[in-house]
Amino acid sequence: MNGRTSVADRILQFNEELAETTLELPSGFAVINPFSGPQKERVRKVTTAFYHKYYDDDRPRRLVLGSSPARRGTAVTGVPFEDAKLLESETGVDVDGYAVSRPSAGFLHDVIRRYGGREAFYADFVMSFVCPLGLVRTNPQGREVNCNYYENKKLVECLRAFLVDVLERQLAFGTDTSVCYCIGSSGNFKFLSTLNDGQGYFKKIVPLEHPRFITQYNGDRKEEFAEKYLRALRGEDD
C-alpha cells in the first residue's frame, strides 16, 4: 500500500477516538461505549483481530449503516452486527460471558453466507452505525433498555453534531460513496436521508428493513427479506 494506512487501521483508529468520547444526554438516557470501561481490552483484542483479518488493505468499500449498537450485541463485542460466538471462533479471543446470540446477527450472517461468505462480503462492505455508541433509556420499571437515537427529539438534538462528525469520519475510511445501505427503513433512513439531502454524502441511500423487525414480526417472510437484501447488495435493483 506504499506506506498508506489500511482500512483496518482507519477503523481501529476511529474506535480509539470513540473511546475518548463523552456525550451529554437528556435525563433518563445513557451511553454504552464498548471501546472504554472495564471491557475495553477485550473489545480491543476482538476488533483488532477481526479488522486485520478482513480489512488489511486499501480497497474502497460501501457502508452498511444501522442506527446504534444493541447493549447486548455490538456494545459488548465492538464489531457491528456480529454474533459473539462466531467472533470467538473467528478471532480466537475468548468472549465467554458475553456470547449473546442476537436474531439480527443470525439473519445477517445468513445474508453474508449467501453473498459469498465473509471474505467476499467484507471485501465489499463495512458495517457500522449512524450512532456508533450504544444508547439506553430507563423505562418506567427502572430498567435500562435499548433505544434509538431518533426516538426522542431532545436526544436527536443533543447528538446531532456528534452524528454528523462520526459519519464524516467514517467516510474517511476510504468509502465508496456511490451507495449507502441503511438498516432500518423508518427513523434511521429518514434521519440519514435528511443529512444526505443537505450534504450529498452519498449518491443514493437504499433502505433495508431491520433484521429484528424481520425475525420478530415477519419470521415467515425471512426468505423474502434475505433475497431483498441480496439483490440490493449486489446492485441488482439499480
Order of helices and strands: HEHEHHHHEEEHEHEHH
Shape: globular
- Compute the average pLDDT: 90
Number of individual domains: 1
Q: Which CATH class is shown? A: Alpha Beta
Q: What oligomeric assembly is this protein in?
A: single chain
Q: State Rg.
A: 17 Å
Across the major sheet, the strand order is: 3-2-6-7
Point out poorly predicted stretches.
none
* Major sheet summary line: 4 strands, parallel
The N- to C-terminal Cα distance equals: 32 Å
The number of helical runs is 10
What is the tally of beta strands? 7
**CATH-defined superfamily:** Uracil-DNA glycosylase-like domain
Write up this protein.
This protein has 238 residues and is of the alpha/beta class. It has a single domain, classed as Uracil-DNA Glycosylase, subunit E (3-Layer(aba) Sandwich), CATH 3.40.470. It has 10 helices and 7 strands. The chain has helices at 7-19, 40-54, 74-77, 84-91, 103-115, 118-124, 153-171, 187-199, 211-217, 222-233, and strands at residues 29-32, 62-66, 125-129, 134-138, 144-146, 180-183, 205-208. A 4-stranded parallel β-sheet has the order 3-2-6-7, with helices on both faces. The longest helix is centred in the C-terminal third of the chain and has 19 residues, at 153-171. It is globular. The two termini are 32 Å apart.
